[in-house]
Structures are given as structure tokens and as C-alpha cells.
Amino acid sequence: MPVLVSFWGKGGVGKTTISSAFALRLAQKGFRVYLISTDFVPSLSDVLDVDLSDGPKEVSRGLIVEQLTEEKIVELWKERFGEEVYRVASSIFPVDREIIDYVARAPGIVEEFTLYYVWHRFSTMNVDVVVWDTMATGGGIRMLRIEKEFYDHLGEAAKLYLKVKGVLDKIRRGESEPLVLIESWRRLAEDVFSFLRSKEHRAVLVSRPLRIDLNVARKIYAELKDTGIPLKALIVNMVSNQNKDILLSFEEEFKSKLGLITIPQRDSSPLGLDALSQLFSPEVWNMLQELVLFS
Ligand SMILES: Nc1ncnc2c1ncn2[C@@H]1O[C@H](COP(=O)(O)OP(=O)(O)O)[C@@H](O)[C@H]1O
Ligand SMILES: [Mg+2]
């Protein structure tokens, strides 16, 4: 303790529902829990049936939740990195402060900073468990790749410009700030990345018993493995009598690799705290707890 439990999968499989139910159940058991959703198609507020527009909120005893929006992450990024980016950029080119907005909107910045933000929350929140509802597949996986490469590329590119411009000499004469900053960004990215690979992080893959979702699950499984993320369980959500045969394919493929848990299809969407607290049967809860908290 503390640990980070993250839920991965394509849109619509039940990530937000399951993350919320998991976080709520933990809080009901007496853990202090922080639930953060970084899916930029926000649904946490609908799933929990509480208004989250004013920022992080304690929705139930011991459970604080936060819905991150794209706008908010851009603002936070500017606060944290804007000035540094301006300092590095303006030492290379004659630019004004508009460069900060320009960089903040560059592809990949939002995804990249989302990781930093989750890590930051994890390091600073005084809770037992942080539950992370990740963005839908594409963004999530892309985010991991970007995290791996972003600062390296940025660093190399900036170093090249510095060389080309002869600024390196100037820096060697004592004004070393840009390189120091770039180096600190790189170290930050490394810290975030090694945290995601650490044993404090437990990832859970969520899928549905559909042929097409099996393919996606296979892909995410490979990506997370490649990245070195500790994947603990696969939840097949919305199982019914009609899709038992595909469940067999899931079992064949994944049972030897990680803990497999099934959740039945409910007659109606599990919305609100009461419905969510009943999503997991006692058996499912025990398995999930065993796999992600105690293994
Ligand atoms: N076990 C279930 N039974 C019935 N409906 C479910 C179940 N799990 C999720 N849902 C519903 O499926 C939809 C998608 O779930 P959601 O958690 O928003 O998925 P995601 O976050 O992966 O996009 C929502 O309407 C949700 O209420
Ligand atoms: Mg969602």
C-alpha cells in the first residue's frame, strides 16, 4: 500500500462502471480510495450519478472521485510545464509566450501529461488505493508509446537545434538552463514510466464476450505485456447465455495467462451508488481482491 489499480479496454466494455464499482466496494471495506477517470468522453458522473463538474469530490465515505477533462489537463500542463517550455524554446528561437499554447495543443501532449498527472496524484494523495479508469483503447495504448518516446525525441530535437544554432557554446559558457530542463523532463518521464511498470501498479483488462472484443483484448494484452505493465486480471463483462461460446474462446486464450473473471449482463445499466455496490457477487469480489490487491 498504496497501490494503483488501472482498468484498460475499448470503449463500451464497462471500464468506468467496473472501476467505479471496484472503488466503491473498496471504500465500503474501509480503504481510503481515490478514483480518477481520464477518459475524455466523461461518463463517471453519469455512472455514479453525481455532479463532478466542480472537481474532485467525496461521493461516499472514503471515496474521492475526479473526472479529468481535456481542458483541465491542458490547463494543468501549462501550469506545470508552460514556463519551462517557454524558457527552452525562447533560448533557441525568437518566440513569444504564445509558444506555450501552441505546444500545449500539440498531438500527444494531453495523453502524455495524463500519465504524469495520474502519477502525481498517486504520489501526493494520502490514500490506500488509487483506481484509474483509463481512456478508451486507442488513446490508452498510444499514450503509453508516447510516454516512452516523447521526451527523448523532444530532447534530441532541441539538442540538435541548440547545436545548429551555435547556442551550445553559449550554454557551455554557463547558461546551461535549457539542457538542464530537458534532462529533468526526461527523468520525469522515466520516473512515470518505471512507476507504471512497478509492483505498486496492477492493471486489469476489461472486455466483452464478442468476437471483435476478443481481438481487441488480444491486442491490448500484447501491448501492456510489451510495455512491461503488470497485468493481473481479465474481466469479461456482460456475459449472458447467448455468448457462452465466445467466453470459451476467452478462457482458451487467457486462462493460463492471467486471472479470468466474468460479470453477468444485467437487465439494466448499473447506474448510481446502490446499483454499483451490487455489481460484484461475493465470489467475484474475492477473486478480484485476491488478484489485484494481494498478489
Ligand atoms: N454488467 C453490465 N450489465 C449491463 N450493463 C452494463 C454492464 N456493465 C456496463 N454496462 C453498461 O454498458 C455501458 C458502457 O459501460 P461503461 O462503463 O461506460 O464502459 P466504458 O467506460 O468501457 O466505455 C453503460 O451504459 C453501462 O451502464
Ligand atoms: Mg468510460
By oligomeric state, this entry counts as single chain
| Rg over C-alpha atoms, rounded to the nearest angstrom | 21 Å
Major sheet description: 8 strands, mixed
Chemical compounds bound to the protein: adenosine-5'-diphosphate, magnesium ion
Give the CATH H-level superfamily: P-loop containing nucleotide triphosphate hydrolases
Low-confidence stretches: none
The CATH architecture term is 3-Layer(aba) Sandwich
The name CATH uses for the topology is: Rossmann fold
Percentage beta strand: 15-25%
InterPro entries: ArsA/GET3_ATPase-like, ATPase_ArsA/GET3, P-loop_NTPase
Protein name: ArsA/GET3 Anion-transporting ATPase-like domain-containing protein
Domain ArsA/GET3 Anion-transporting ATPase-like: 5-244
Pfam family, one: ArsA_ATPase
Characterise this structure:
With 295 residues, the chain is of the alpha/beta class. The chain has a single domain (3-75, 103-292), classed as P-loop containing nucleotide triphosphate hydrolases (Rossmann fold), CATH 3.40.50.300. It has twelve helices and eight strands. The chain has helices spanning 15-28, 44-48, 70-92, 98-104, 109-124, 137-164, 167-172, 177-197, 211-227, 244-254, 273-277, 282-292; strands spanning 3-8, 33-37, 57-60, 63-67, 129-133, 201-207, 231-239, 259-264. Strands 3-4-2-5-1-6-7-8 form an eight-stranded mixed beta sheet, with helices on both faces. A hairpin with a 2-residue loop joins strand 3 (57-60) and strand 4. Helix 3 (70-92) runs antiparallel to helix 8 (177-197) and helix 5 crosses helix 6 (137-164). The relative contact order is 0.16. The mean pLDDT is 87. The chain binds adenosine-5'-diphosphate (ADP) and magnesium ion. Adenosine-5'-diphosphate is lined by residues 9, 11-17, 43, 47, 237-238, 263, 265-266, 269-271. This is ArsA/GET3 Anion-transporting ATPase-like domain-containing protein. Pfam families: ArsA_ATPase. InterPro entries: ArsA/GET3_ATPase-like (IPR025723), ATPase_ArsA/GET3 (IPR016300), P-loop_NTPase (IPR027417).
